[in-house]
TrEMBL record:
This is Putative N-acetylmannosamine-6-phosphate 2-epimerase. Converts N-acetylmannosamine-6-phosphate (ManNAc-6-P) to N-acetylglucosamine-6-phosphate (GlcNAc-6-P). Its EC number is 5.1.3.9. The lineage of its organism: Bacteria, Pseudomonadati, Pseudomonadota, Alphaproteobacteria, Rhodobacterales. Belongs to the NanE family. It catalyses: an N-acyl-D-glucosamine 6-phosphate = an N-acyl-D-mannosamine 6-phosphate. It comes from the Bacteria. It is an enzyme of class 5 (isomerase). NCBIfam families: PRK01130.1.
Length: 234
């Protein structure tokens, strides 16, 4: 298992996910996204949902970080929150199981989730939003800690880019971490590794064409010629 983490050192991992109801939200489309990412140099992929994990395992040979997103009453924790969710991710074929390890009201505590993943002989990735959560997850035995949840909890800030401050704090605390969340450019991905990330996970900037298109559409609106200017050239 250590060799899997060694293999991922310095790697680009691509998160291939589609919001429910979007055109790409089908296992065959997610598998095609994953295969494209691998062609482009992804060392591993991060995949949401058991049917998608199965389709991706059948399509590519790289390691899969698996998770399920489930909204349950009484908790804001939605990434692989329970034992059943962990079991479903493992049974679908994930090599690494990602789960929310934020300090919020949760159905199952983080040490118990870590132990469940370990009992399956898989690696755990604890998605956190603060350095305190990172320390706690690492102390509980998580194999890696991801900055995934930074900016998505009430107490953390989302300024549209990666949370470099959290990465610096995790590195200083000696917590092995993975950079994930709002990495928009190759330069930002390289910066994450310079700050000590073991590997970097990029999602939307590569695999969400609707979001990428929106960035272009919004940006060029500013530069688009106004009707009067067009009439002059007609
Ligand atoms: C907060 C949360 O639920 N993050 C999810 C975790 O799996 C995904 O929706 C993100 O796309 C993923 O973390 C990659 O991030 P980005 O797409 O920003 O590169």
């Amino acid at each position: 298992m250590t060799t899997l983490l060694d293999k991922l050192t310095g790697a680009l991992v691509v998160s291939c996910q589609a919001e429910p109801g979007l055109p790409l939200d089908r296992p065959d489309h997610i598998a095609a996204l994953a295969a494209s990412a691998v062609l482009g140099g992804a060392t591993a992929v991060r995949i949401q949902g058991a049917p998608n994990i199965r389709a991706v395992r059948a399509a590519v040979a790289v390691p899969v970080i698996g998770l399920v997103k489930v909204v349950r009453p009484g908790t804001d924790v939605y990434i692989t929150p329970t034992f059943d969710d962990i079991d479903a991710v493992v049974e679908a074929g994930a090599h690494i199981v990602a789960f929310d390890a934020t300090d919020r009201l949760r159905p199952v505590d983080v040490p118990a989730l870590v132990a469940r993943v370990r009992a399956w002989n898989r690696l755990s990735m604890a998605d956190v939003s603060t350095v305190a959560e990172g320390r706690a997850a690492y102390a509980a035995g998580a194999d890696v800690v991801g900055t995934t949840m930074a900016g998505y909890t009430p107490t953390t800030r989302n300024d549209g880019g990666p949370d470099f401050t959290l990465m610096i704090e995790l590195a200083r605390a000696g917590v092995p971490f993975v950079a994930e969340g709002r990495v928009r450019t190759p330069e930002e991905a390289a910066r994450c590794l310079e700050l000590g990330a073991r590997f970097v996970v990029v999602g939307g900037a590569i695999t969400r064409p609707d979001v990428i298109t929106r960035r272009f559409a919004d940006h060029i609106k500013v530069a688009a010629p106004r009707p009067a200017a067009r009439e002059v050239h007609q």
